[in-house]
From TrEMBL:
Keywords, alphabetical: Isomerase
Name of the protein in question: UDP-N-acetylglucosamine 2-epimerase domain-containing protein
The species this protein was found in: Marinobacter panjinensis
Pfam families assigned: Epimerase_2 (PF02350)
Family, as annotated: Belongs to the UDP-N-acetylglucosamine 2-epimerase family.
Domain of life: Bacteria
SUPFAM superfamilies on file: UDP-Glycosyltransferase/glycogen phosphorylase
Matching InterPro entries: UDP_GlcNAc_Epimerase_2_dom (IPR003331), WecB-like (IPR029767)
Residue span(s) of domain UDP-N-acetylglucosamine 2-epimerase: 21-332
PANTHER family cross-referenced by the UniProt entry: UDP-N-ACETYLGLUCOSAMINE 2-EPIMERASE (PTHR43174:SF3)
GO molecular function terms noted in the UniProt entry: isomerase activity
Length: 357
């Protein structure tokens, strides 16, 4: 049996193409939702034509603040034990695999649960490294622990394979990230915006929004950019909460060049992204999407574990005003051709899962 253990919106977007490929082949899987995020999950499932989770480990409000994390982790530990109903369809011979994705707390929880059950663990989007434990934190630490726990590492490129060579695990080269499959489908299926006079800003990483000085710097930079370029500021729920608690929501809302938007459904966001002039983000998934679409992308981080677009359409801000200003002075130089290749990382992964069908 194949168990798919995920908990965040970003994970669902990247795992949806794998789930879709399994369903198209009539291969059963058990979808376990950790409960880390639930808002907009139903929209993503509907976009991809997928059924909801078979079970929820925690069914309640999204985990938006650090104070909620300890209780959530405790419940995850308690509700993924051998007696749990979440392991529907498990094989009596233990020929099961738990697929986890990326670098969130749900990744680590799922990997630990797999090992406790005696199942194999497959890590999707494995091998990515920033080589800085504290940037991003705790994501880099989660990656390192998951590399050790997982049995199969699904790596998107040669660099990620090199990063895990010393672990002695079975490594599968997926020739790209499953985000490629998701972006290709979303761009095809989404209704494109009839506007093209805007850029998009999407900031949500913990190391940015929970660092008051850095968060204020980013907001001020976005405001300065908006004096020359219209911006749709897409707010994840934790971002909106931090904007309001830091007194920054009103600053953004008062700017005529900024339009504040609640978080969009994935396909709706893809439609806006396909028509945008640029993207300001701190998200790795957004960086990948921009590289496939050839969209000029400014990443509000000091470093990134992803190589997609670097040296082409993607620029790291390093929280430098000079770099930000130079990016916008040369904006069109960073636009590159759309590159949605026909390679399917999701199909490569599904083919490799054959022993667990």
């Amino acid at each position: 049996m194949i168990h798919i253990f995920i908990g965040t919106k970003a994970q669902l977007i990247k795992m949806a193409p794998i789930m879709k490929a399994l369903r198209e082949r009539d291969i059963p899987y058990n979808f376990i939702h950790s409960g880390q995020h639930q808002e907009t999950m139903s929209d993503i499932l509907e976009d991809f034509g997928l059924p909801g989770p078979d079970s929820y480990i925690v069914d309640g409000p999204d985990i938006k603040v650090k104070a909620q994390v300890p209780k959530w982790i405790h419940l995850c530990e308690k509700r993924t034990r051998r007696s749990s109903d979440c392991w529907v369809g498990r094989s009596k011979r233990c020929s099961d695999i738990v697929l986890v994705h990326g670098d969130t707390l749900s990744t680590l929880v799922g990997a630990l649960a797999a090992k406790r059950m005696g199942f194999k663990c497959g890590h999707i989007e494995s091998g990515l490294r920033s080589f800085n434990i504290f940037h991003p934190f705790p994501e880099e630490l989660v990656r390192l622990m998951t590399f050790r726990l997982a049995d199969v590492l699904y790596c998107p490129d040669d660099a990620s394979i090199s990063n895990v060579a010393s672990y002695g695990k079975r490594v599968v080269h997926t020739h790209g990230n499953t985000m490629l499959d998701a972006t290709r489908l979303a761009v095809t299926m989404s209704r494109h915006s009839d506007r093209s006079d805007y850029g998009i800003a999407s900031i949500h990483r913990y190391e940015n929004i929970f660092h008051a000085e850095r968060f204020r710097w980013i907001v001020e930079a976005v405001i300065e950019i908006s004096r020359n370029h219209k911006i749709l500021f897409i707010m994840h729920p934790p971002t909106e909460q931090r904007l309001r608690s830091n007194g920054l929501y009103e600053r953004l809302d008062a700017e005529p060049g900024i339009e504040l938007r609640k978080r969009l459904s994935y396909f709706e966001f893809a439609g806006f992204l396909a028509q945008a002039k640029f993207l300001i983000t701190d998200g790795g998934s957004n960086q990948e999407e921009s590289s496939y679409l050839g969209l000029p992308c400014l990443v509000m981080r000091k470093g990134t574990e992803r190589r997609e677009g670097i040296g082409k359409n993607v620029v790291l801000s390093n929280y430098s005003k000079e770099i930000v200003r130079d990016f916008f002075a040369k904006l069109e130089n960073y636009r590159t051709p759309i590159s949605l290749s026909h390679t399917s990382p999701s199909e490569i992964i599904v083919n490799d899962l054959r022993p667990y069908y």
